[in-house]
Amino acid sequence: MNRLTVRDCLWSDVVRVLEEERPEAVSALSVFAIFRESVETGIFCGLATEIDIIQHPNWIFADLAEHREYHCVSPDISVGRALRIMNQHGLNVLPVLERQSFEGVVTQHSILNMLLQRERALRKKARILNKLLADEHKQVVSWSTRLAKLHEASRSLLTVLAHTSIQSDLLQMGVESLSKLLEARYGAIGILDESGGLQHFVFTGIGPELAERIGPFPQGKGLLGLVIQENVSLRLDDMSTHPQSAGFPPHHPLMKTLLAVPIAHRDRVYGRIYLSDKENGEPFNQQDEDLALSFAHSLSLVLDNAREIEEVKLARQSLDYMAHFDHLTGLPNRTLLKDRVDQAIYHAHRNRRMIGVLFLDLDNFKLVNDTLGHTCGDQLLKCVARRISDCLREGDTAVRLGGDEFIVLLPDLTDTQDAAKVASKVLESLQPPFAIDRHEVYVSASIGISIYPHNANNMEELLSSADGSMYYAKKLGKNNYQFFTPEMNGSAQTYIKLEKHLRRALEQDEFMLHYQPQVDVKTGTIIGMEALIRWISPELGMVSPADFIPLAEDTGLIVPIGAWVLKTACLQARSWQKIGRPTRVAVNLSSRQFHPVQTQQGSQHPLLNAVLNALDEADLSPELLELEITESILMQHLDSTMELLNTLKNIGVRLSIDDFGTGYSSLSYLKRFPIDILKIDKSFVNDITTDPSDKAIVAAITAMAKQLNLEVVAEGVETLAQLDFLCELQCDFVQGYYFSKPLSPDEVMTVQRQGILVG
Ligand SMILES: Nc1nc2c(ncn2[C@@H]2O[C@@H]3COP(=O)(O)O[C@H]4[C@@H](O)[C@H](n5cnc6c(=O)[nH]c(N)nc65)O[C@@H]4COP(=O)(O)O[C@H]3[C@H]2O)c(=O)[nH]1
C-alpha cells in the first residue's frame, strides 16, 4: 500500500463562497472556501468554519478570511506532516493548494477518517494475507509430512533390502507405501525380467484371487507399455476416453484416473508403477506425479542395488559351488571331501569310532571313452555317480576326484566289514548295463578300502592307502574290492613307481626286442620269430612285460610302445632279409592298439597307419610280418574288427590268434575271419603229457585247423615228451624253451647261421 498523502484525505464537505457573501446556516462540519470574483476560477482568499461564523455572526466572508491565520499545504505532503502543521498552529483545517490553485481542504477529521479507512483496509488485507499464509503454511506442512513419509518409505525399502533378498516383499511394501501416500485405490508394480518381459507383479487394493484372474499384463502394449518403452510418466483424468487404455487386462477393476511412472535409473528401465483412482475422486496432479517419480527413483536405486547384491550373491554361490562340487556329476569334489574327512576324523576320534574310505576306479572306462567318445564317457560317469550315491546312507559322501576315480566316505563305522558291505553293494549296482546313447555299456570297478584309525590318521594318508589297495584290486583281476594292508602299500608304490619310469622309457631308449624262434618240427628249420619286448630300466633293472604291458595298456602308453615294436621288428626282419635269411617276424598287438583311441572320422585306423609306416620305413615285404591278436580282441566290436583284419590281410600281412583255447574258443568265428595261424596256448602244452583233456583239446584244435587250412603253432614247448605228443597230434610248428628262449638280435644271428635248431 502507498504512503498516505494529503490528496488522499481531502474533505468532501467544502462549500465554495465569494468574499462579499454573508454566511448562511450550513452543516456543522462544513468548511467554507472563500474566493474573490468567482467561486470556480477566482482567487482563493481563505477558509472559514462553522465556529468562525458563530463567533462573528455579522461578518462577511472577506472579514472571516482576513481574521483567520493563513496556512496552506501541498496535496503531496504526508498526512503526518499536515497534522504536525495543524498541531503547531492550533488549526483543525488547512487549505490544499497546488501551484496557487485550490484543490480542496484537509481536516483533522478527514485525515482521521482516511486513517481509519486505511486501517480497515490494511486489517482486511492482513486477514487475507494471514489466511494465505496459513494456507501456505498448511501446504508446506503437508508437503513436509509427505516428504517425511516418502523418506520413511524409502528408508523402509532400504531396511527391507538389508534384511531380505526376496524382491517381491520389497516391491509389495513399496507399492503399498506409495498408494497410501497418494491415497490411490489401486496400485501395482511390474518389473521387467532379463528378456524384457514384464514379470513379478505386486498389487495393492486388489486381492490375491483377483490378481490371479487379472494375470500378466500384455507385454509392451497399451499405456503401461508406453511408460516403459518411452521412459515417461503418464497422467490421465479419464481413462475411458483414452484409446490405449485397452492395454489393461479385461479383469482389471474399472478405473477412471491413472498415474503411471517408470522405475528407471540411469536410463535403465526396471519396470513401472501405476496408481489409479484417488480416494477423494480427484485426478492425480503434478505433485502426485513428482512424488511417485521420486518414489520410483528410490525404488530403482533399491532394485539396482538389490540386483547388484543378487548378482554378487549368485556369483559367490556359483564360485562356492565350483570350488566344492564336481561340475559334471554334481558330487562333492576333493576340497569338500577334505572338510568332510576332517570333520569325520574329529567326531570319530571323540566317539572312538572308525571311518571308511573307498577309492573306486572304473575298470574299462578308458575303452568306453575311446570307442564311444567323450560325450558318452561323460554320460557314463554321471550315471555311475548316481548309482554309487544310491548305495549310500544319509551322512555318507560320494566324491568324484576326477577322471573315472570316485571316493566314498563312510564317516561312522562300527565294523570294518560295513565298509566291505558298501563296496560290494556298489560293485553290484554297477553290474546292470548302462544305456548310453543307444549303446548298452558295461563297466565294473576296482575298489580299495582304507580305515581310520587303523590305516591312516589324515585324509592324504587315507586316500593314498585306499588308492594302493585299489591298485591291488586291479591287479587281482579288477571288479573287486580290497582292504589296505602294508604289503599292498608296497605293491601300490611299486606300481606307481613303474608308471613314472615307464612314461620316460620310450624316449630314453630303454626298450629292446628279443626274438623267440618258431620251429618246423619235421625239419628243425626256423619258420619265424616272435618279437617279445624287453625293458631294461636303469632304476628298476629288467622289468618283465607281464608286469609293464598291463600298465602300458591302462595308461594308453601301449600305443606309442606298440608302434615302436612294429617299427623295430620290421627293421629287424628287413635286416635278416638283406643278409639272405628272410624270416617272418610275429608282433603282439594289444587290445588298446586294435580298438583305437578315438579315430577321427575319415582318417586311417592308427594301427593300420603304424603297420604301413613300419613296413614302409623298413621296406619290408608284408608277408614277412605276422600280427598276433588274442581271442578277446577278436570278439570285441566284431564288425569293425572284421573290417580291419580284412584290410590288413589285403595288405599281405599274416594274422595269427595268440593264446588260442583260453578265451571263447569259438571255432565258428575262425571261418569268418581271415586268419592264417593258430597258436595253442602254453597252458595246454604244459600238461599235454599228463592231462588227457588237454591232449584232447590240442588234438581237436590241430584237426580243426587242418580242416580250415590254418597253420598251428604250439607255444611253451619245454620238453621232448611234449614235443613228441605234439608230433603225434600232427602239430607241425612249435615254439618254446625246448628249442630256444627269446634271443637278443645278436644271438639270433648266431642261431640263424646254424640254419636249424635242435632241441
Ligand atoms: N614258461 C615258458 N614260457 C615261455 C616258453 N616259451 C616262451 N615263453 C614265454 O611266453 C611268452 C609268450 O608270449 P605271449 O604269450 O605273447 O605273452 C607275452 C605278451 O602277451 C606280452 N608281450 C611281450 N612282448 C609284447 C609286445 O611287444 N607287445 C605286446 N602287446 N605284448 C607283449 O607279454 C607276455 C609275456 O612275454 P614274455 O615275458 O616275453 O613271455 C613270453 C615268452 O618268453 C616256455 O617254453 N615256457
From TrEMBL:
This is EAL domain-containing protein. Residues 495-756 form the EAL domain. It comes from the Bacteria. CDD domains: CBS_pair_SF (cd02205), EAL (cd01948), GGDEF (cd01949). SUPFAM superfamilies: CBS-domain pair, EAL domain-like, GAF domain-like, Nucleotide cyclase. It comes from Methylomonas subterranea. NCBIfam families: GGDEF. Pfam families: CBS, EAL, GAF_2, GGDEF. Residues 353-486 form the GGDEF domain. Residues 66-122 form the CBS domain.
